[in-house]
Write a sequence for this structure.
């Protein structure tokens, strides 16, 4: 009988022990969640204040980031959007830290993977932001130069350059995130190679005269000009 | 030679065809007008591959056959390479240093590609310094009405409206300056900017005016020179000159904000009419680039000028070629919009100024069409009207300056 009672009570005792071992972890998790929530809100407020001081929204307008956000159908101010991103990043971070306080094997593995992935996600985000700014800068430079050269399809050329750069940047970001790297590299090679081939063929067919002039060093035009009356070009300075 | 009273600088790069004539004219000018001064001719060369420095050293003529008197001191010549960013400004920096090192009392610089330089140019550039105590002598030329379009439509009107001095050729290329002025130039830290290239001329003139040095101008006659390096295209020149002009505008805000109107500066030299070479311009090509800008650069221009001025510019796009006119008042507003956008860092400075090219070509085409049947005086009167518009609209710049 004594053994039987022991058999009945032992699981309860084990459960009680496990439960009382678990309760502090649970409490720690809840405290981390609550502290994390308030900390995240505080950090968000600090960032919003800093953004306001440095005129972050105006800078985003100039850099074209506001336009990108609007294309994603987000109509909040860029400072609010970035404040929100920081807030939710911290919330997720504290959730993972809180879960790790439970000391459960599965959650510990998940947390470890999450923290290992953060640097990659951060690198990808930096690549995307820097890449977008560089693509905009280069595309604008191409547009202005093409217009100043009297090129008729300046806007199309500038958009093509922007598209090429964005394809390149997306491929780099996906490769950084290790999302199907084999497929990304293959797809990128095909798309990028295809675009370059298409442009080469287009130039070869459409710009055959221009290509001939470039190869001949502009000789036909120069010869023609020399035969004209003795006039010189106007000076700019 | 340890010290010199006069230093004449010649910046060069592959000017073998013309530099011999320039050196001879300078040499003759020094012998004829300053025989009792110790003079040094310095060639600051950018690594010419056509033997330019050898020609500088060997170019000679028989003084006895030309002049009745002989110089008291022999005229020395040196040719030296310069360091830094390749360009006219870096070459001038080496000349300023040499002038300070030699304790020169008066200096002048002349271009190495000049065909029309005479010995009198040296007298005209240096005498105001020796005899009248001026620190900076700007050139004044007879030019074709279509020449110097950046000068006429941007640099001269802006400089005159801001600083109140009517220096007609602020980026002429030939200048005279005192030893004090050379010391001032050497002490400035600008040699990694556009000043090292085509920005040097407007920088020298503006710094002389804004820092209250005694400034005058001198009439040299016609300026005829070899065609410029074809590699130095319009957009690059405009960028270097206008970026320097705008940087100086930011730097000297306190000097120009309260300046109203403008006044003449003392002018030396005997003014006479000169027969000028004919010049070809293609207004239709300029207008095509202006219209392409209207079509493709609208968003960029909107960020710089806002809807008001842009709306007026858009209305010009529909005008047919012959009757196309860019109003002077609107052009003044556009240039001031660009100055303000540059100061507010609306976009990368290079993009900002390069986006001005189609507008500048539109304005130039308008001037070409307007002045087609005008004599030189008529064209000059149009430039005067433009300058008055810049002066009248200066409050717009002051009010919007942050």
């Amino acid at each position: 009988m004594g053994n039987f009672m022991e058999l009945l009570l032992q699981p309860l005792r084990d459960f009680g022990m496990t439960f009382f071992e678990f309760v502090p972890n649970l409490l720690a998790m809840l405290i981390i969640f609550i502290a994390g929530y308030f900390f995240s809100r505080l950090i968000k407020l600090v960032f919003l204040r800093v953004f306001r001081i440095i005129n972050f929204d105006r800078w985003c307008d100039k850099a074209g980031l506001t336009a990108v956000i609007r294309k994603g159908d987000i109509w909040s101010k860029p400072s609010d959007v970035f404040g929100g991103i920081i807030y939710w990043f911290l919330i997720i971070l504290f959730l993972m830290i809180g879960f790790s306080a439970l000391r459960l094997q599965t959650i510990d593995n998940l947390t470890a993977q999450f923290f290992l992935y953060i640097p990659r996600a951060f690198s990808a985000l930096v690549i995307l932001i820097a890449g977008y700014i560089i693509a905009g800068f280069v595309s604008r430079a191409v547009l202005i130069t093409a217009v100043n050269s009297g090129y008729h399809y300046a806007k199309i050329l500038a958009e093509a350059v922007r598209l090429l750069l964005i394809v390149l940047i997306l491929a780099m970001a996906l490769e950084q995130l290790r999302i199907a790297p084999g497929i990304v590299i293959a797809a990128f090679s095909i798309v990028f190679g295809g675009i370059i081939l298409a442009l080469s063929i287009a130039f070869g067919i459409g710009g055959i005269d221009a290509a001939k002039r470039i190869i001949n060093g502009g000789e036909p035009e120069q010869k023609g000009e020399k035969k004209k009356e003795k006039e010189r070009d106007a000076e700019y300075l | 030679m340890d010290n010199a009273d006069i230093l004449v600088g010649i910046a060069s790069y592959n000017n073998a065809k013309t530099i011999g004539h320039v050196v001879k004219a300078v040499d003759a000018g020094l012998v004829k007008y300053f025989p009792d001064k110790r003079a040094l001719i310095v060639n600051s060369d950018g690594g010419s591959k056509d033997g330019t420095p050898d020609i500088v050293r060997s170019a000679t003529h028989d003084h006895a056959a030309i002049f009745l008197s002989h110089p008291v001191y022999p005229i020395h010549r040196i040719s030296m390479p310069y360091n830094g960013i390749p360009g006219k400004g870096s070459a001038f920096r080496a000349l300023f240093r040499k002038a300070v090192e030699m304790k020169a009392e008066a200096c002048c610089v002349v271009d190495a590609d000049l065909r029309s330089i005479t010995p009198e140019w040296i007298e005209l550039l240096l005498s105001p310094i020796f005899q009248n105590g001026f620190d900076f002598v700007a050139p004044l030329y007879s030019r074709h009405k279509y020449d110097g379009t950046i000068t006429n439509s941007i640099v001269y009107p802006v400089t005159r409206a801001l600083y109140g001095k009517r220096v007609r050729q602020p980026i002429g290329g030939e200048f005279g300056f005192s030893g004090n002025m050379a010391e001032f130039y050497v002490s400035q830290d600008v040699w990694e900017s556009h000043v090292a290239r085509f920005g040097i001329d407007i920088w020298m003139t503006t710094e002389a005016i804004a820092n209250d040095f005694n400034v005058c101008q001198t009439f040299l006659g016609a300026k005829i020179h070899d065609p410029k390096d074809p590699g130095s295209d319009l957009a690059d020149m405009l960028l270097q000159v206008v970026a320097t002009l705008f940087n100086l505008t930011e730097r000297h805000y306190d000097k120009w904000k309260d300046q109203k109107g403008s006044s003449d500066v003392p002018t030396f030299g005997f003014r006479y009419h000169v027969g000028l070479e004919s010049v070809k311009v293609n207004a239709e090509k300029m207008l095509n680039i202006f219209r392409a800008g209207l079509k493709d650069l609208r968003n960029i221009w909107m960020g710089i000028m806002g809807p008001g001025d842009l709306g007026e510019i858009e209305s010009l796009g529909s005008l047919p070629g012959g009757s196309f006119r860019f109003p002077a008042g609107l052009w003044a507003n556009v240039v001031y919009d660009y100055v303000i956008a540059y100061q507010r860092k609306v976009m990368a400075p290079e993009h900002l100024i390069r986006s001005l090219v189609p507008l500048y070509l539109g304005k130039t085409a308008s001037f070409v069409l307007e002045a087609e049947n005008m004599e030189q005086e008529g064209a000059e009167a149009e430039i005067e009207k433009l300058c008055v518009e810049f002066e009248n609209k200066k409050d717009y710049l002051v009010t919007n300056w942050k």
Summary: Strands of chain A lie at 232-233. Residues 82 and 234 of chain A are 52 Å apart (CA to CA). Confidence is low (pLDDT under 50) at residues 218-229 of chain A.
